[in-house]
Amino acid sequence: MTQIDFYTHAADKYQTACRLCAKALEQGRRVMVYTPDAQTTDQVVKLLWNTPAIGFIPHCRTADKLSPVTPIIVDHLAEPQAHDDILLNLCSEQPLFFSRFHRLIEIVGQDESDRIAARERFRFYRDRGYEIKSHDIGKKAG
Question: 103: closest CA among 40, 21, 37, 45?
Fold first, then answer.
């Protein structure tokens, strides 16, 4: 069953996504960052070129011929999927294909509309029997 983690109170969802991708890469994991649209995909891709500040995280889009061997995939297109390790969801709704992955990461920002959408996703997963872990990353900033 897919392991689900909610990272709550993120000051910047996209920066948090990049930090989590860097951590996963250090651990030898692969991540698909699922975005809601092309504009968000472009924004995350640009951030990954500068994360960490003196390096970059190897990444590409789903359709890239290197996607089968690239550790981080960023796209708003769900198919085809190059791996089934970690899915990092940046969309307001749960991805229909999340259960194909070993782990799902949900990042919740600080604005109310994002928190409301996250609560709905949380209930969706919980009501289907998934165990969910929550991590309040807002506390770490203080």
Answer: 21
